[in-house]
Amino acid sequence: MAQVSLTINGRDYRIRCDPGEEDRVRALGTILDAKAHVLAGRLGHVSEGLLMVMVGLTLADDLAEVTRDRDEIRARLEAVGDAADQAEAQERLRHDADDRAAQVIESMARRIEGLAERLERP
After folding, report:
1. Number of folded domains in the chain?
2. Contact between residue 7 and residue 34 where contact means Cβ atoms under 8 Å apart
3. Which GO terms describe its biological process (predicted)?
4. Phi, psi values for residue 79, rounded to 5°
5. Is this model's pTM higher than 0.70 or not?
């Protein structure tokens, strides 16, 4: 198991992680540290535990917002997909109608030609 050193709000922590995950854990630690600094600046002197709870709540709020946005985007994409499916179905119907119309016109043309031949016979 790998180990990473993180500094969050001026305190050092040693965190274990799976091999290959070190850079990701460091990046996440950087996010935590940035949130902690912002909140510490706003809240003033608070206990480390309360600060970490506030950091957790802030991150949970960020996650909830991103999740809501993702769900709205998925709903919009589904609506677009449904509209695309409907448009495709309508296009198939138009194509089928065009094919049927062409067949009817060809049939009528053959009948007219047949009638014309009969009329031309003495």
Report:
1. 1
2. no
3. cell division
4. -65, -40
5. no
Question: What pLDDT, in 10s, does the model give residues 81-121?
Answer: 888 888 888 888 888 888 888 888 888 888 888 888 777 77
CB 8 within 8 A of CB 40: no
Query: For 45-65, what is each residue's pLDDT tens digit?
Result: 889 999 999 999 999 999 999
Whether the CB-CB separation of 9 and 48 falls below 8 Å is answered with yes
Q: Are 43 and 51 in contact (CB under 8 A)?
A: yes
Calculate the CA dihedral of residues 15, 17, 19, 20 and round it to 10 degrees.
-90
Give the whole-angstrom CA distance, residue 64 versus residue 77. Answer: 20
- Euclidean distance between CA atoms 80 and 64, whole angstroms: 24
Q: Distance (Å, rounded) from C-alpha 9 to C-alpha 37?
A: 6
What sign does the CA torsion over 25, 31, 33, 35 have?
negative
C-alpha distances (whole Å) from 49 to each of 33, 40, 60, 62 are 14, 12, 16, 20
Distance of alpha carbon 103 from the chain centroid: 44
